[in-house]
Automatic annotation (TrEMBL):
Residues 124-218 form the OmpR/PhoB-type domain. It holds the Pfam family Response_reg. It comes from the Bacteria. CDD domains: REC_OmpR_EcPhoP-like (cd19934), trans_reg_C (cd00383). This is DNA-binding response regulator. Residues 2-116 form the Response regulatory domain. The modification 4-aspartylphosphate is found at D51. Keywords: DNA-binding, Phosphoprotein, Transcription, Transcription regulation, Two-component regulatory system. It comes from Microvirga aerophila. The keyword Cell division does not apply. GO terms for molecular function: phosphorelay response regulator activity; transcription cis-regulatory region binding.
Amino acid sequence: MRLLVVEDDNTLNRQIVTALEQAGYAVDAAFDGEEGQFLGDTEPYDAVILDLGLPKVDGVSVLSAWRREGRKMPVIILTARDRWSDKVQGFDAGADDYVTKPFHMEELLARVRALLRRATGHATSEISCGPVKLDTRSGRVTVEGNPVKLTSHEYRLLSYLMHHTGRIVSRGELTEHLYDQDFDRDSNTIEVFIGRLRKKLGVDIIQTVRGLGYLLDAGQTKT
């Protein structure tokens, strides 16, 4: 899953980005509203963390512009604790959730996980497909209860497919959502990661749909 952090405080921005990357996300960062709005307009993010007090263009204006253009990615706004009016403005502009500063990073991570689950129709932190279970809270993957060790990119790929179980996902879409903006993207590596995932999982839940992409389907499970 690919996220965008728009926060003008350099230290806080880096702290959020680091925490999200350690949690298994691909993350891009912007430090003012103008850059953030441009990235949100041109890149396919799964969620955005947006500060409201931004230079150049304020966060409410950025969010309002995204929604006018039909951008539907979930957005968490960051607000000062004593500015309740900012929260109201943010929700009216199209925000999905908010976190007040200062905040505990674990709370922000939990809210990100919840937003991503809701956006893809999942009710709990554990996502299942046949015998495969992925705990988004701990990053743990198991097959029939047995833990499976994955690399960061393998985990990102499986997580994206499991969040979108039952839908064909193209190789191009996977490439766009697995890597951050600065990564040297090569869609051919997706095939390599798919092959590794199939081998490590040991169950046939990832189908190749010729000419279209990949489909995660528990109904096709074979051991």
